[in-house]
Write a structure and sequence with these properties.
single chain; mainly alpha
Length: 37
């Protein structure tokens, strides 16, 4: 828990990039899901 907190404080840009990529992937997946319905 403390280690992940330290990583969170040390690498906010990395976490932001990961969240951004995850959001892009979710949007793409949602688009395909909507198209196929």
């Amino acid at each position: 828990m403390a280690v992940s907190g330290l990583v969170y404080l040390s690498y906010p840009p990395l976490l932001a990039e990961m969240k951004d990529k995850q959001a892009q992937f979710t949007n793409i997946h949602f688009s395909f899901f909507t198209l196929w319905q």
